[in-house]
Amino acid sequence: MANITFSSPAMKKDLTVYAVAGDRRTLLSVAQEHQVPIHYECENGECGSCVVEVLVLGSGKPKGVHLTEKEKTVLVLNGKLSKEDIEHMELNDIAPKWRLACQYMLLDEEVLVKF
């Protein structure tokens, strides 16, 4: 199970939901299911409107999740990551903290999602 806590000034309080890890659903689809107001427009990783900060909670090592090519392009254009940041993360299997909610697949870990 993936424990996801959504946090935003747009919400009255933080919301923690449980989702099945590895079911190939995106973070955005889980947010929509639970009426979490993450802003989005295109839902296919091209506009960058659903950028979120994903922080791994707990003592476990964050799982390295590779960015899609669309995410790399959009996050660099939005100034959230540099090409050097991406190269460093890929070489060292480090999970990036900035993701597109429409591209991020859930893992078996507890995360805090800020938007």
Task: Give a structural overview.
This protein is α+β, with helices and mostly antiparallel strands and 115 residues long. The protein has one domain: Beta-grasp domain (Ubiquitin-like (UB roll), Roll), CATH 3.10.20. Helices cover 23% and strands 22% of the residues. It is built from three helices and five strands, in the order E-E-H-E-H-H-E-E. A hairpin with a 7-residue loop joins strand 1 (2-7) and strand 2 (15-19). It is globular, with a radius of gyration of 13 Å. It starts with a strand and ends with a strand.
Describe, in short, the structure shown.
This protein has helices spanning 27-33, 69-77, 83-92; strands spanning 2-7, 15-19, 51-56, 98-100, 110-114. It has 115 residues and is an alpha+beta fold.
Topology at a glance:
Layout: E1 2-7, E2 15-19, H1 27-33, E3 51-56, H2 69-77, H3 83-92, E4 98-100, E5 110-114
Parallel strand pairs: 1-5
Antiparallel strand pairs: 1-2, 3-4, 3-5
Secondary structure: helix percent: 10-25%
N-C termini distance:
22 Å
Strand proportion: 15-25%
The best one-word shape is: globular
DSSP strand count: 5
What is the CATH architecture descriptor?
Roll
Q: Write down the overall mean pLDDT.
A: 91
How many separate structural domains? 1
How many DSSP helices? 3
Q: Structural class, from secondary structure content?
A: alpha+beta
Low-confidence stretches: none
CATH class membership = Alpha Beta
Major beta sheet summary: 5 strands, mixed
Instruction: Give me the CATH fold name.
Output: Ubiquitin-like (UB roll)
Q: Give the strand order, joined by hyphens, for the main sheet.
A: 2-1-5-3-4
Radius of gyration: 13 Å
Fourth-tier CATH superfamily name: Beta-grasp domain
What series of H and E elements makes up the topology? EEHEHHEE
